[in-house]
């Protein structure tokens, strides 16, 4: 960050980026929490090879859960990166 | 003083890995020791007692060692809990007796539709992390009402926050104490009422002396016990049946077998199309609307439950609060993605080794549960082969083999009976009981602390006596904890009929009451005190009204509020004939039992009352928006505070007097 940028501008830019990240994750959350399960019936016609799960069932029982866990670790990293970029991160 | 404790505590904090590593090893050694004792002929009952008392003693020791006389240690564990360990503690805090014992059973009964609960109880952590948790950590509150009070101008908002908190936590904690009583009575043969109060003692020793600090470190210990206990039986079962120790992968095969067996049962007349609910078919038990409504309410409810949010007040930094949410979900995920495996293995066992069997050849594991009334065959408790044969003979035209419609199983049995189904020694059953107990105790601890903290910090200290000295505040906190615990235990001992449904209600109530005000408080600077206060009242009020009316005044709901019958998700037919039910003499009865024809069976838009948050929360958002827009925007000072909350760097907004 250049020193000349005043605090207000930095705050606003930081919050814009933070909001964008929030909406992205909210979108992914909504897709894997709801949208994909609306198609459970067609997805159930696909059987995962070897394991034998119908895909629609699998997504609800495991797939979406794995996505949630992974996205939370990613979110923690990404938000921290944004905070650091604008100099708002806590000291290590 | 602060530096003193920091130094005193750092020995422990720097060696957490070692401490809990030794603890885990010790616990495993203890299990092996009990297994050896079993081999040399020590009776099961003694093994059960050893399990329960050993684990309780360990929790009590941790509780006593973590005692504290400091306010910040008592309320937020000195904000020094590393992300990973806070994640474990949250996992134990989160997973209740219902998750541990009941979840797999729900999946057994409901098949695909039951997964709504699994999804709902995991996905909510995404919302905790991206919308609320880290910001409340930066704010520096001790309790959730603390934030509401600060952001929304004072004690009226605080009072509302306390009401919402108590409403959703009290019923929940009652269910946990009920769960401890159930597990203790089943495995130790204690009388239920006595078991409830025995469980209460276990809960109190953990939380009374050390508040949040003690609860945190006991919860970590409890998480380790509960996850070992949950995974051990199915890992063994999976290895036995499929030669591979990861049940989450092998149960796909079990599901394929179940589906094949379902078709076979239909073809051979062991079941009828009406009685069979295919395991993987969606929307048989819940309509699509209710399926997604339950997911939404459980998720948003997760992000609004005070006892979960306050766990993230204990991390050293905002950054760690975020990481901690991720760890929490990982630890919770380990249990939830295993629950469907339990359900599938049990179902396959029931379908192949009970249904279609000649009555005299039923496998004996189920008679223990039949004696307790938890498994019924042909409408009678399946306590012995003779009892089953007699019961089925009484049914006209019974073919002499068990049909699907003859078989009724209580959901709690699925997890508890898996060790026996797999033919494992009793020590594994004891382990499972210890795990269930850990799950119930840890959740009860977290909830009790949330309630007692709100009463002592928010009501007593902030609203009644702001000048109270530290020592008195902590004494009040402990006395209130004791009172709340005893009241909850007394309620649980009466075995209230709605106890399990109430856990679901708690999520909707939290969602409607807390979520809009918390989210708008962080994400919309323009949200005003008047807006938030009216939003909480409107949203929470509507949700509560819908619950209470559909459950306790269904006749009035139909007569005055235009409620109609919920429908059967499969056929679309109404569950009750409203005109006929309204003509009955008891139609307008208040507080009816669950047997009442209308109770829980009426509503608006075919929405089950568990999902009432779906009505309340949008209303809450709308009211906050409109009322805020009508009023003057919050002061520049308040807006600057909101900016502060949004930046991890810097001091917490709220500086508490801690000495």
Taken as a percent bin, the fraction of beta residues of chain A is under 5%
Low-confidence stretches of chain A: none
Side by side, the strands of the main sheet of chain B go: 2-1-3
Report how far the terminal alpha carbons of chain B are from each other: 9 Å
Shape of chain B: globular
Structural class of chain B: mainly alpha
Overall geometry of chain A comes to elongated
Largest sheet of chain A: none
Biggest chain pair interface: A-B, 48 and 46 residues
**Could you name the ranges of chain B where pLDDT drops below 50 across 5 or more consecutive residues?**
1-8
- Biggest sheet overview of chain B: 3 strands, antiparallel
Number of helices of chain B: 27
Share in β-strands of chain B: under 5%
Helical residue percent band of chain B: 55-70%
What oligomerization state is this entry in? heterodimer
What is the element layout, followed by pairings?
The complex is a heterodimer of chains A (92) and B (659).
Chain A: H1 7-38, H2 40-44, H3 55-85
Chain B: H1 2-14, H2 16-39, H3 44-65, H4 71-76, H5 83-94, H6 97-110, H7 115-139, H8 144-151, H9 155-188, H10 192-207, H11 211-242, H12 247-267, H13 288-302, H14 306-309, H15 318-336, H16 339-353, H17 365-371, E1 375-377, E2 380-381, H18 385-393, E3 407-409, H19 413-421, H20 426-464, H21 470-493, H22 499-523, H23 529-552, H24 554-561, E4 564-565, H25 578-583, E5 602-603, H26 613-630, H27 636-646
Antiparallel strand pairs in B: 1-2, 1-3, 4-5
